[in-house]
Write a structure and sequence with these properties.
The complex is a heterodimer of chains A (279) and B (292). Chain A is 81% helix and 1% strand. By secondary structure, chain A is mainly α. Chain A has one domain. In chain B, strand 1 and strand 2 form a beta hairpin. The chains are: A mainly alpha (279), B alpha/beta (292). The interface between A and B is medium-sized, with 32 and 33 residues.
Amino acid sequence: MSFARQVLAAARLDLAEVLRSRWLVFCGGAYLLLAVIFVLVGLRESTVLGFTGMGRVLLSVCHALLLLLPLLALTMFGPVIGRARDDGTLELLFSQPLRRSAWFVGVSLTRYLVLVTPLVVLMVGLALYGEMVLGQQVPWPFVVRALVIAAALLVAFSGIGILISTLVRNPGRVTMYIVLAWALGVALLDFGLIGVLLRWRLDAQAVFTLAALNPVQDARMALLSGLEPDLATLGPVGFYLAHRLGPDALYALGVVWPAVVGAGTWTCAYVAFRRGDLV
Amino acid sequence: MHIELRQVSKRFGRSRALADVDLTISSGAQVALLGPNGSGKTTLTRAIMGLIRYDGEIRIDGRPLTERMSVASRLAYVPQIAPQLGATVDEVLGAVSDLRGLARSTVVELAAELGLDVDQVRRRSLRGLSGGMRQKLLIALALATPAELLILDEPTASLDAAARARFLERVANQRGVTLLLCSHRLDELRALVDHVVALDDGQVAYDGPATTYLAARQAAVIELHHRGEDGGWLAAHGFARGAGGWWSRVVSQADKLELLPAALAALGAAIDDVVVRDSDRLELEVAGVGQA
């Protein structure tokens, strides 16, 4: 049986698993809740960074998503291998002629798509709602940019999540590492870094490097990179990097670096999965 | 499929699951893997299937087992505990049939023989089925596979008597297939295997003909109905108190002949009823008693 058909077989089974555990509903619900909150609180009436109406709503939603997406990806991928091992799925599937790589790829793709698809539907739906129902002008280039950045951020944390899943067997510890990875991503944003800088008198260059290594920070800067750099919005580290690198490089960094982190961690996870016990 | 294990060891952290196991399973042999819980039976089958890493060497038909896929395509497996998959019966059946290149109809027919109507449960999730239904589906999938090695780990634990009888008949009719069976049910062992490998603490404690092994270990159950309040003598002699004044103990066939007259002499008129029956399981094995 070809590799592609094996991937498809593994993906189908995992999709059924994900759908029955209501992950798709949960992700969609979480995204929608954010959107509804921002629409309801009337942000579309105000103007920020040149964005008004639905543009402003979309910007705010994206900003909030930068904190939510890593947590969703980590929670989706963190327990995947441990759970499949504990409930006997791995034992059953790998007693069949199914390659480890096919299962790994199938599960990764399925779960990634379950994270991304509702996001795309929501963003495009929100933009269309603004344009067609509310008659507002929608910044489509920004919508596309935001989706690309969000997709890259999801790659990063999906990779980190599955690495945790591969390396850590104990479910309690998996949860601990998920929270830790998310907290690190969120904490190492501008203000946290400035705190570190002041507390330990770190070299400014080290702080900027730390910021640039954090996929959440990169995604955030990339999201705002098309706008006029503003210290209050970008924060000191983001402001410095925006001026130093320029908007295009910032956007590229915000897409490429999370993708590299995701690909790197996913590869490490796969190598560990190949070498380890399946049950 | 000819299987050779040479100095195979496996540790899980500090715990030793297999210790320098040397074993040869000839092509077409029907072998029971026996031993108390934690003796290494499941670990041994998982090593042969390539599901776990191990020290030592396993050779399949003379070639080192280096790639799990090479053996996976030639074996069929029924696990002791069916997986708790959220996928529907149809989806599981479709995935495994795809991977194995099986005709769906063959699996459905086999399942029907075991008493499972696949069409009736096709939209139900695997974890939504009863343990027996799940097991029937897995057995049907395994038996539909044209395998050279059949590994069955307590396959009938959740089956009803009729399904068990049909299962035994089916497996007994598989010709030329190497069989590895983990079970303590005497009827299965008698019907299916000609060779026994007993494991104890990860080591091979017995490797020889099934008849010799079973004859030495077949257990009996003595049940006594005791009228008196004081069951001191019974408790002191290993009897366990049951409901309604019944006491029972599993003993070897030899011990049965000593214990029963002793109980009657000691308790006399306080005993109203006695039942002595052959156990349908290798009770002594499970209890870890009477190892030879």
